[in-house]
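Researcher: Here's my situation. A collaborator sent me these components and asked whether they could plausibly form a single complex. I don't have experimental data yet, so a predicted model of the whole assembly would be a useful starting point for our discussion.
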Amino acid sequence: MPSNTPLLLVLAISIVIGFLMVIVFRYTSDQKAIGRAKDRLKAHLLAVRLFQDQLPVVMRAYGRILHGTGSYLRLAFTPLLIAILPITFLIVQLDRYFGWLPLQPAQAFLVEARVEDPAALNEASLQLPPELSSSAPAVHVPKDKEVVWRVVAERAGHYDIQIAASGQTVSKQVVVTPGLARVSPVRLKDHFWERLFTSGEPALADNSPVQSIAINYPPREISFAWMEWNWIVLFFVASLVAGFIFKSVLGIQV
Amino acid sequence: MKWPQLRRNRRSLLPILLLILALVLLFPQRGEAYAGPGAGFAVLSSFWTIFVAFLYSFYALVTWPVRQLLRLFRRRKAYGQAQVKRVVIVGFDGMDPELASRFMSEGKLPNLAKLRDSGTFRPLRTTFPAISPVAWSTFQTGVNPGKHNIYDFLARDLKNYLPFLSSAQISEPKRHLRIGKYSLPLGKPEIKGLRRGTPFWHWLGKAGVFCSVIRVPATFPPEKFPGVLLSGMCVPDLKGSQGTFCFCTTLASSDKFREGGVRIPVEQNGDGFHSYIPGPEDPLGTGSELRAEFKLRPDTKRGQARIEINSETFTIKVGEYSEWIPVKFKAGMGFTARGICRFYLKEISPEVEVYVTPVNIDPGRPDLPISHPVTYSIYLAKLFGPYATLGLAEDTWALNEEVLDDNAFLAQCYGNHEDRERMFFDALEKTPQGLCACVFDTTDRVQHMFWRYLDKDHPAVRDVPQDQKPRVIQDLYDRMDSLIGRVMQQIDDQTLLLVISDHGFKSFNRCMNLNAWLHQNGYLVLKDGKSESGDWFEDVDWSCTRAYTMGLNGLYMNVKGREREGIVEAGAEAEALKEDLRSKLDGLVDPASGKVGITGMFDCDAVYAGPYVDNAPDLIVGYGEGFRASWDSVMGKVTTAIFEDNLKAWSGDHCVDPRLVPGVLFSNRKIAIEKPAIVDVAPTVMKLFGLELPSYFDGKPWAVAAAGDK
C-alpha cells in the first residue's frame, strides 16, 4: 500500500463529509433565522465601534453580543444535534482504520490483560497461535490487577489469542499487516460507552474473570503540510475548510 | 417524517437531541472529540464573534483613560455650559401648521397638542424658495441659500442651459485602462458635494457632543464628522438617477413615461415569462446598459407568481410587494454592480404586469458611500435588514403615471417609514447624550400625492363625491402624532424635543408654464417656425431670449458674459429687465379662475446674501395658493397654454410664495420667539450646548426655557 493512501483517504472523506454536513445544515436549520442572528451579531459588533464614546451603549452592545451568540449557537446546534449521531458513529468506525497502525511482522507488542480478582493473576495464561510467539516471560502487576505479555508475530495475518483464567478462556483479535486494516485495540467487559467508542469487538462475558484485554497498537500519525497529524485533527480541519468552501459556493448560511 | 413536519416538531425533538448530546458529552472519548463541521462552524463563528468583541474590549479598556481625557478636554466647553443633556429633532418634511392646528382643534393629534399646551407651537418661517433641499440645507448650516448654494433640486449649466443636480455631482473615475473594447475604470466614481457651509453637527462633534443624524435632506455625499450620519434626499439610485422605476408588462405600448420610469416588455417563454430590470451603464465603457434578467411563473389559481432573479427565488401575490431583493448587474471582467429592489405584482392575467422599484444602493454593501462612517449604513442593514436608501424612495412618479394605485403607493410609503422609525429609535437609544436628528419624508410624499382628497374642488378628483374620498392625510398626521408620543415616552426633562418641518403645504390645482408666458410676452424667443419647444429649451433661440425659467421657482435672465449666449447686459439693463418682469408677473391673474397666480416676485439680491448669490436665480417666483410651475415649465419646455388644470395625483405642493407655506415648530419647552425661522435651529442648538456661534450665521438663537419653567 502506498504510504500516502491514508492521507488521501482522510482528505477525500473530509471533503465528502464537509459537503454532506453543509447540505444537512441547509435542510435542518432555519436559514433565515441564522442569517438574521449573524447579521445582528455583526451589527452589535459594529455598534461597539460606532458608539465607542457612549459607555452605556457599548456595555449594552456587549450584552447583546453575548445574547446574540447564544441565539446563534442555539440555531446552529439544532442541525448539529441532528447530525451528531451518524457522524459520531462514522468517526468511531473510521477510527478503527485510521486511529491505529496494525502490527508489523517481527514487531514486538504487548498484550495486557486485566482481571477482576487479583488472585486470578497467577493463574492467567496466554495461548498463542503458531504464527505468534511470546518473547518474554509474563509480568504481573498486582497493584493494577494486570498481567502483561510481550509477543512477536512472524508473519502477517488476523489472529485470535486466548487468555485462560479461573477456568475460563477468552479471546482477543490481533491484526498483523503492512496495509490499512480495521483494528480493535481493546476488548472489554461492561463499559458500554467505552466499548462503543474504543473497542471493535464483542463484549467479554458478564461472568468472565477478565475485565479487559488490550494490544498496544502504535497510534497512526499522518504526514501532511510538513506536520504530523492525528487523523481526527486533520479530518476536522479539512472537512471544515471543505464545508466553508461549499457553503460559500452553495450560498448556505452557516 | 417529511422535513416540513420535522421542522414543525423541532421543539419537541430538541429536548431529546439535547439529551443525546449530553449523554455523548458525559462520556468523553476519542470518537466524540469531533462532532462534525456543524459544530466546527458554530463554535468557530461564535468564538470569532466573542474573540473580536473581547479584543475590542481589551483595546477599549487600555485606551479608555486616554480617550476619556481627550473627551473631557473636548467636551469641557460643550457640556460645561450646556443647558440640555440631549436635543432630539424630529423633522416631518412638509408638515403644515394650518392642518396641524385644524386637526388639534378637532381633538386629534393628542401628543402634538400636549407639546403645544405645555411647550411651544409656532409656524416656522421657511426659505426662499420653500423647497426641501433648500430649507433643510439652511436648517443644517444656519445660513441663507446665498451661503450654502442650494436654490432648487436643479441648477443650470451656464454653458448649455441644461440642468444638473444642485446638491451632488457624480462623475466617472478619471483614469481608465483600455483593454480591447473595454475601458477599465481605475478607481471609484468621484462624488462631489455641491452644498456649501458647515452643518451644525460638525461643530457639535468637534466640541465632543455626539450626534446621530438620519436622513436629513442634502446630506449626500456624507461628510466626515465625529458622529454617525445616514444620508437622505438626493441619494441616487444605482442608475445614478433620483429614482427610475421599471414597469414590466406584456401589454405593448409605445407610450413613454414623462419622467421617473421605463416600460420594459415581458416576453412569454413556455409556461413562464421573462423580462429584465435595466441597470446602470456598463462601467467598462461599452456604452450599453447592464441588465438583470428575471423569470416569472404565474400561478393564476392562487393569484401569485414565482420570480427568479440571479440566485434568488421568491413568490408574491397579486397586489403585494416582495421583500427587498438583492440584484446583481454583471458587466464583463468580473465587474458587478449590486443593488436592492422590491417587486410589486400588479396583474398576472390576462396581462402580466410587474412594477419594480428603482434599484436602490444596497446599504449592506454600498457601491457609493451613503453614510458616515461607511459602516453606519451597514450596521443599520445588519440590525434591521435591507432598507430604502434612495433619497426620494417613495415612488411618486409611479403613482402619477398610474403604474401604482393609491394603496400600493401608501404601502410603499409606510413600509419605508417603518424602517426609518426603527432606525430613528435605535439612534435615540444610542444617543443618550448629544444630538439625535431624523427627518421623515413620508409626510411630504403623502401630502403631495393625496392633497386632492382634502380639496373638494381639486381637478384630479372632481368627480369623486366628498364622502368617498379617503382620509389619507388625517391618517398620516395621526401616525406622526403617534410617533411623537413614543418619542416623548423615551426622553427625560433634560432633553429638548424639537418637532419641525421645512415648509407647509397647499393645494396644487393649476399649473403655470412661465416659459409660455415669457414666450408670449416676448422675453423668450423660439426658433423660426416653432410655436412650442421640447424639453430643456430644445427650440429656444438664445440669441434673442432675455429670460427663461427652469426648476420649480427660479427665473433667470440671459445675461451676457454669464450665460453662454447671454444678451442682457449686466448692470442697468439687467436691473431694468428684472424690475420689468417683477412688475408684470407679481399679481398675475389666471383668467380662467380669476385667482392670482403669482403673489410675489423676489429679487435674489434682496433675499440672499453670501458668496454664492451669483449662482442663484435672478428672481424667485412666489406662486399663489393653488398654483405651481407646470411639469413642462420645470423641464424647460415652452407650451402654448400658460395655465392649465393639474390632473395628476401629485396634487399638493409647497413650491409657492414661501410666506404662504411656513413649516411647524413644536417643542416640549417654552420658546420665547414670535416668528421663529428654520435658519435659527442651528444657532439655537449650538447655544444650548454652550458653543460659540460662528459670525457668519444668519439665524438667531431662540430663548429656550429651562426644564420645568412655565
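Model: Some features of this prediction you could bring to your collaborator: Chain A touches chain B through 69 residues (CB under 8 Å). The CA atoms of residues 231 and 239 of chain A lie 12 Å apart.
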